[in-house]
Amino acid sequence: MSMSEASAAKKAKWPDFVPHPAAIASAACLMLLAGVLFWCARWIVDAAESAGDYSHRLGIALFTAAILSPIGVVAFAHHGFGRALDRWLGRAAQARGALPGVLSLWAGLYGWFVLLFASFLSLAGAMIISPSEWSFESWARAMERIFSDASPTASLRAIFSLPGLLWFAIAAYMFQLARVVEARLGRD
User: Per residue in 121-130, pLDDT tens?
Assistant: First the structure.
């Protein structure tokens, strides 16, 4: 065992199959940010429906923008959070300009993927666990309550529902998978 492998073994004491607190925090941040993401997408879809009456191409372009809008929102949130942490921790700011860089765009793309994949798997899991109780409509209502600007008590009830808990666990494990892959590639 080389010296670098020994130091990496000392550093990596967290088991790979248990979500690291950073992965759990990423899932929680994405769940909190999802309300903004769905609000932006809903606003763009409304604009696409209105524009579609005049131009089908513009309506389709806006609808595509609504589907992809979470990538940009997460990228800007990642970029802004990184800048705020740099200032708060007194670190020399990395080369961060006003616009998100490649790593922030990657975080946006991965966050978008986690959002969609965890949503799909939470629906499938809820329907497998309790098929008589969970249909697509009930899942959609629960997801809307989780990610919408509904009252805090309704949102909390929805988050602690079966699909909400499944969504959170799946998202935490997906962020954990990304951490493990980055560690194995030597980037962590």
Answer: 888 887 788 7
- Lowest-confidence region among 19-23, 35-39, 40-44, 65-69: 35-39
Among 20-29, 46-55, 92-101, 172-181, the minimum mean pLDDT is found in 92-101
pTM (2 d.p.): 0.74
Tokens of 146: 């989780």
How far is it, in rounded angstroms, from Cα 50 to Cα 181? 43
Of 137, 110, 108, 125, the C-alpha closest to 167 is 125
Alpha-carbon distance 24 to 40, whole Å?
24
